[in-house]
Structures
1.
Amino acid sequence: MAIPALQLQSACKTFNAGQWNEVKAVRDVSMVFEWGESVLVIGENGSGKSTLLNLVDGTVDLTAGSVSMSGTDVSTWPVYRRYRHIHRVHQDPSQGMAPYGTVAENLAVLGLENTSLFDVDRLADQADMTHFARTIAVINPDLETKLERKVYLLSPGQRQAVALAMLALRDGGQRILLADEPTAALDPRTAQTCLSLIDQKAKSGWLVLHVTHNSAIIDANRGRVVTMCEGEVSSDVYT
Ligand SMILES: Nc1ncnc2c1ncn2[C@@H]1O[C@H](COP(=O)(O)OP(=O)(O)OP(=O)(O)O)[C@@H](O)[C@H]1O
Ligand SMILES: [Mg+2]
C-alpha cells in the first residue's frame, strides 16, 4: 500500500485542560488521507474543524496522539517546517499574510521558502509583476491594478482573492492544502474560480482538506466527506 499523505492517530486537543473552561475540541480522531484526494470537512460551528486543521499544520499542539505526513511523524515539528509540505487558505484571510505589506509583497513571499521575511521589499522589487498581475486577474480582475495596495486596505473578499492568488502561485510539487471556508467571503464568480483552483490542485496530486458550510458545495460534491460533531468524526463517507 502507498504511504499515506497524511495520517492522524488518536489525535486529541483539549483547551484549558482541567479548568472550568475546558473544551475537548478534537477527541481521538484517527484518519488516513492519500495524495490526490479532495476531502470536504463539514460540521456545525464549534465542532472542531479548524482545530483539526491547526493540529495538522502545528499552529495548535496535540494534547495526545500523532500527525504523520508522507509516513514521517511531524507531531514535534514546528509550523515553519511543516509549511514546506502544506499550503493553507485561512478562514480569516488576514491570517497567513502580511497585512501591512502590499499585494505584490505578499505574492512575492511565496517564492522565498528559505529567505528572511525582512527581505520581502527587495524580493517584491525583483519579482515578476506581469506574472502576478496575470495570476490575480484570473481570480479577481479588479485586483490586477492594485498590486501596490496594502493588504489591510482591501475588503475581506479581496483579501481572500489574494490568498487564492498565493495558492495559484505556490508550486514546487505535491502539498497538503488546508482550505478553511475559502469561499465564505467570495462573490459567486470568484467562489467558482476558487473551487476550480482547488480541484486543479487535487488533480495535480495534492491532498485537499476543504472545510465548508456551503450547502451548494456539499450537495454538488462527489467524493469523500468527513463530518465532525463535538470534536469527533461522526461520519467519513464517499458521496
Ligand atoms: N484557542 C482556543 N482556546 C480555547 N478554546 C478554543 C480555542 N480554539 C477553539 N476553541 C474551542 O474549540 C471548539 C472547536 O472550535 P473550532 O474553531 O475548531 O470549530 P469549527 O468547527 O472550526 O467552527 P466554525 O464552523 O465556527 O469555524 C470550540 O468550542 C471553540 O470554542
Ligand atoms: Mg472554523
2.
Amino acid sequence: MVIGAGIAGLTAARVLSDRYDQVTVLDRDELPDEPVPRRGVPQGTQPHILLASGLRELDARLPGFEAELIAAGGTKFDMGTGLCTYRLGRRWPSVATGVELVAATRPLIEGLLRDRVTKLPGVTIRHRVAVSGLTGSAAGVTGVLLDSGETIGSGLVVDCTGRGARSDRWLTALGLPTPAQLEVKVGVAYASRLYRRRPGDLPDWEAIFTLPTSPHERVDGLVFPVEGDRWLVAIGGWHFPEVPTDVEAFERFARELPDPLLGELIGRAEPLSDIVVAKFPSSRRRLFEQLEEPPPGYVALGDAICSVNPIYGQGMACAALSAGALGAALDKHSGTAMAREYYAAVATIVETPWQFAVGGDFGYSQTTGPRPRGIKLLNWYSRQIAYASQIDAEVNRAFVRVQQLLDPPSVLTRPEFVLRVLRKAGERRRQG
Ligand SMILES: Cc1cc2nc3c(=O)[nH]c(=O)nc-3n(C[C@H](O)[C@H](O)[C@H](O)COP(=O)(O)OP(=O)(O)OC[C@H]3O[C@@H](n4cnc5c(N)ncnc54)[C@H](O)[C@@H]3O)c2cc1C
C-alpha cells in the first residue's frame, strides 16, 4: 500500500511491483488526465528540473521514460553548456560537463510516470481517497485507515505523503516510535510565470540560473524551457516576504537581478499566465535512521523523510534513488531489519542535498535551526569550489556530478582535488 501518488509514491510503486503481487497507490487528489498542477502538489506550478541521477534511475526502472519525456516536450541539456549560470558575481563560461538533465513541468513529469506505473501488472492507483491514519498496534503497522472510516490491510505501508506527512501523529496513535526532526527555517518563496518560447529567444543557452551572493543578495532567477514551447520563469529568494505577486513587481525583481539575461528575455517574450506564488518556509528532515526499532510494516519515502530548499532541484532525484534503496532492502530483509537497512541507505542519499542546501541557507543570518557540524568550513570550501569552477572545467565537472547525486561528496575532499580547488580559486580571485 502506497500513500501518495507524487514522484515518491509512483517510483515506490514501480519498485514494489517487482516484489509484491498487488500494489495499491492511494491519493486524496483528483489525479488529472492532462499535465496540469493539482492541489496536493502546490509546488507543481514552479520550475522543476530532473537531475541526471533521477533521470537515469527512472529510465532504468521504466525503460524509454526519458525518450517519452523529451517527445512530450521536455528539454535535455548539458549543465555546463545549456544552463547559463550566474553565481558569485559572474556568468560562468559555457563548458560541457557531460552531465545532462531534463527540464519540463512537474505535472508533465508526474503524469508520464503515472501513465507508465498504471500499466504495470498488479498496480492500482486510486484517486480521491484520503488516508487519515494507520491500523495496527505497538507491534507494527498492518494497514491504513481512510477518511471514509474504511480500513485496508497491507503487508507494507509506504508513506509518500510529501512534506506535510502526518507520520508522527499516525505512528504515535499506535504506540510506535517516531523520529527526531530537524527543521531549518529559510523563508523561501517563489513567484513564477509562463511565457511563449520562440526559436532564438536565448541564442546561446537553453535555461538560466542566476544565484544571489549571500549575505547581501537574496533573490534568484530561473528560466527553464517547458513543454508547449513555453518558458517557465521564476523569481525566488531566501527570507523573501516581498515575493512578487503582481506583474510590475515581478518585472522589477527580474530587472534587478545581477545578470540582465532573465530581465531581457521577459522584456521580449509574450506572457501566457498569471503569476503563481509557492512558499517553502523550512527545510525538514525526519531522522528515521536514528530509530533503534523502526516500526515494522511501515516506511516513509521522499519528502515525507526529507524536504530541502529546492534551489538545487534535488527532491525528485532523491525520491527516485530512495525507491531504489527500498527495493534493495526488501530483497535482503523484512520487518524492522528491512526498515533499518532502508533508512540507513536513505540517510546517505539525502545527506548531500541536505548539506548543500542547508549550508547555503546559513549564509543568511535570518536562517534559524540546527547548524550542521563544521558548517563554517564547509561553506568556505564550497565557495572556493564555486570560484575554482568558474575557471576550471575539471573542478566544475566534479562539483556538478556531486550536486547531481551521481558521485559521493567524498570526491570533493580528496587531497589532490582540494589542492587544485585552492590553487584555482586563488587564481580566480586574483582576476577580480
Ligand atoms: C518551489 C519548489 C521547486 C522545486 N523544484 C524542484 C526541482 O527543480 N527538481 C526537483 O527534483 N525537485 C524540486 N522540488 C521538490 C519536489 O517537488 C519534491 O521533492 C517532490 O515533489 C517530492 O515528491 P513526493 O512524492 O515525496 O511528495 P509530493 O510530490 O508532495 O506528493 C505527495 C502526494 O501525497 C498526497 N497525499 C498527501 N497526504 C495524503 C493523504 N493523507 N492521503 C492520500 N494522499 C495524500 C498528495 O496529494 C500528493 O500527491 C521543488 C519543490 C518546491 C517547493
